[in-house]
Amino acid sequence: xxxxxxxxxxxxxxxxxxxxxxxxxxxxxxxxxxxxxxxxxxxxxxxxxxxxxxxxxxxxxxxxxxxxxxxxxxxxxxxxxxxxxxxxxxxxxxxxxxxxxxxxxxxxxxxx
Amino acid sequence: xxxxxxxxxxxxxxxxxxxxxxxxxxxxxxxxxxxxxxxxxxxxxxxxxxxxxxxxxxxxxxxxxxxxxxxxxxxxxxxxxxxxxxxxxxxxxxxxxxxxxxxxxxxxxxxxxx
Lengths: 112, 114
Prior knowledge:
The complex is a heterodimer.
Chain A lengths: L3 E2 L4 E5 L4 E7 L6 E7 L6 E7 L4 E4 L2 E6 L4 E6 L8 E8 L7 E2 L3 E6 L1
Parallel strand pairs in A: 2-11
Antiparallel strand pairs in A: 1-3, 3-8, 4-5, 4-9, 6-7, 7-8, 9-10, 9-11
Chain B lengths: L4 E3 L2 E4 L5 E6 L6 E7 L5 E8 L2 E5 L7 E4 L6 E5 L8 E8 L8 E2 L3 E5 L1
Parallel strand pairs in B: 2-11
Antiparallel strand pairs in B: 1-3, 3-8, 4-5, 4-9, 5-6, 7-8, 9-10, 9-11
């Protein structure tokens, strides 16, 4: 049961431009969302989160937007850097600190 | 910076054998998790563990799986009788407490069942 979906398996962006990664979810009970970045041969690394009481959270070059009515969130990276090249996972939870449902990931390539 | 560690990095085993995957969570963390990622697929939740007992488990976590915190530092995942479809990356994660959403992941153990 795909409760969290990332429909774009890959994305290529020029260095300096904006990267927009998208994530859709089906469970209206989800109240907390996270983005993770993963390099090959490493575990996922927490990037940024947002709770359902907000519609935007910003941390440096990373901004997450949440549209609850559309059950959609997005991660914006501005400006994109070659070091941002990785697989990005979104994850959602309906129960704080417990079970998280992950999307299938989007592989971002930032071209120098 | 504190980190979650996992051993071994790669485990090869024959079908039907038992394997134990080991994790050392961050020392002041209280919640522990196991996830797995089959090659090319999404990261899947297996189990969460708090206060020496399972807090929540997924449908994947059936009777062949068990978790244990045998001492104050290690957190283990045992697969009793491995199957070919158990081949995956297994990630351990930990959080400070139930209200802390940020899960710190280890580098993973690649399990190959032949």
